[in-house]
Known about the structure:
Blueprint: H1 2-12, E1 20-25, E2 29-35, H2 41-45, H3 50-66, E3 69-75
Parallel strand pairs: 2-3
Antiparallel strand pairs: 1-2
Amino acid sequence: xxxxxxxxxKGLVADADAVDVREIEGERATIIEVRVGEGDxxxxxxxxxxxxxxxxxxxxxxxxxxxxxxxxxxxx
Length: 76
């Protein structure tokens, strides 16, 4: 799942080399931390949060298929 999120985020930002995606396994959920360059945080969030909301919807659909909960967080 980390690779898919990384590919999507790299397509959104201007500085793809600054993208760092980490997957942290928990008991009930897997947390996916996304770090981007300072000027690219707004691009990942999108207007009124629509871009990050769409990314969370994709993760929700994948979590239903895999039977595992995924949570995405943008870390500054």
